[in-house]
Write a structure and sequence with these properties.
The chain is of the alpha+beta class and about 450 residues long. The chain contains 14 helices and 12 strands. Among the domains are: about 150 residues, no CATH class; about 130 residues, no CATH class. The mean pLDDT is about 95.
């Protein structure tokens, strides 16, 4: 039987091009990502067999076990964002001959976690990752400390609990097991307001198994979150703001996100990112306040949508290496990176466009107007550059043609002269700094 392909209606593509899309677009993109994850997991199993990896038997048993669960349970297991990212990176390693660096045995831990969640019976051999000795990470559940010399664990699941046998010990864990010095469930953040809920799992353990080839190296992941209360406070404040004043963005976030990756704090500001192959996740350092959290989420949901769209349609044709100035980065960007940045900052400009109308404090309102003017102009000028690029595909050009009139309309909306002047100064200073650094980098 040939499975049906995925179709994206033109009306949804047009909405996405304007920076919108809503939950309908998110669900279509999520369905396509699910198909991608199924192919990745199957490829991983085949490649493990082909290279005769030591984890082969455990991987094949885990694959069969999850295959016996319901469709929704399988989707939850394979679609957990760090599992999807790990599957892509591990399959890539195995395909390129990186057998020694690959850890396909995590699939057995994925199966064990899925069995606990499904309250299913299972008896699984779980290879332990030599790169993280002394720990058994169960994706989506938590981390169990084990003997650091152990290389394998036996996990027997029944009734929503698991008995782990490792290095002569027996340890029982489950959803209702009280955390202790051995077992640490992954924290979960929940925010509900205005009839919308956001649930984010802080599964730092599983992300550590994602190969470095999947951009994780560019995002310094923080250690286990010892005080999730600080994150919860920021998230709930941001969620109130988003659901009250940025409803369309909140609806997309509620439909798309299920995992938060805490990042190490930078010297200043907020560090954030989205993993292309980890649909449903957002990475960020702890923001200083609710407003910063909200705008970061509004920024990253744009990246998430565009990353998923590029798995369906190429946006840029292959061609010579080119780099372009981006008003939001200190480094030159390739054409696809420039398109991503413009799309993300369309979302940022839209956030501040709405936010300036609800700020009561004069300084906060001025800041919102500056940010609106700054990023509207930055994204608009970048879209003009993109419009002139012959390497855009039909879908890529549709996106650029959709962004242009939105940004042009916003650029004509009035802001105070002081805000317009400050926005212009910030943009000019960024460009001057970029020009100086490029001039200094040229050989004499």
């Amino acid at each position: 039987m040939t499975p049906a392909g995925h179709r994206l209606p033109r009306s949804i593509l047009d909405d996405l091009a304007k920076g919108q899309g809503g939950s309908a677009a998110i669900e279509l993109l999520r369905a396509a990502q699910h198909s991608k994850n199924l192919m990745l997991i199957r490829a991983l199993v085949v490649l493990t067999h082909r290279v005769d990896h030591p984890d082969r038997a455990a991987v094949e048993a885990a694959y069969r076990m999850v295959g016996g669960l319901t469709r929704d349970q399988r989707r939850a297991a394979w679609g957990h964002p760090p599992v999807a990212a790990w599957a892509f990176g591990t399959a890539s390693l195995l395909r390129r001959g990186g057998r020694a660096a690959a850890y396909p045995g995590l699939l057995a831990a994925v199966a064990a976690a899925a069995a606990v969640r499904a309250r299913a019976d299972a008896d699984l051999d779980v290879p332990l990752d030599p790169a993280t000795p002394g720990r058994l990470d169960l994706p989506g559940l938590g981390t169990l400390r084990v003997d650091p010399t152990a290389t394998r664990a036996r996990v027997r699941c029944a009734g929503g609990r698991a008995e782990v046998r490792c290095a002569g010990e027996r340890i029982e864990i489950g959803y209702d097991h009280v955390p202790d010095h051995r077992w640490r469930p992954f924290p979960e953040l929940r925010a509900t307001h205005g009839g919308l809920s956001l649930r984010l799992l802080l599964d730092t353990g599983t992300w550590r198994h994602v190969p470095m080839t999947v951009e994780v190296g560019a995002h310094p992941i923080a250690g286990p979150v010892s005080d999730p209360g600080r994150w919860l406070h920021r998230l709930r404040g941001a969620w109130r703001l988003l659901t009250d004043e940025h409803r369309a963005v909140a609806e997309e976030l509620a439909a798309a996100l299920c995992a938060l990756v805490p990042l190490a704090a930078p010297r200043a500001g907020v560090r954030s990112g989205t993993f292309h192959h980890g649909f449903g996740s957002v990475a960020m350092s702890l923001p200083p306040d609710a407003r910063s959290t909200a705008v970061t989420l509004a920024h990253e949901i744009q990246h998430l949508k565009l990353a998923a769209l590029t798995d369906l349609f190429p946006l840029v044709e292959p061609g010579p290496e080119e780099s372009f100035y981006a008003p939001w980065r200190p480094d030159p960007r390739p054409l696809d990176g420039l398109l991503h940045g413009a799309y993300a900052h369309l979302g940022v400009a839209g956030f501040w466009r709405r936010q300036r109308l609800v700020e009561h404090d004069r300084a906060a309102r001025h800041h919102a107007e500056v940010e609106f003017a700054r990023w509207t102009r930055a994204a608009g000028e970048t879209v003009q550059v993109l419009t002139a690029q012959p390497r855009l595909t039909t879908v890529g050009r549709c996106l650029v043609d959709g962004m242009a009139p939105v940004l042009d309309r916003w650029a004509r909306e009035p802001v105070t002269p002081d805000a317009a002047a400050e926005a212009g100064q910030l943009l000019a200073a960024h460009r001057a700094r970029w020009d100086r650094e490029r001039a200094g980098a040229r050989p004499a």
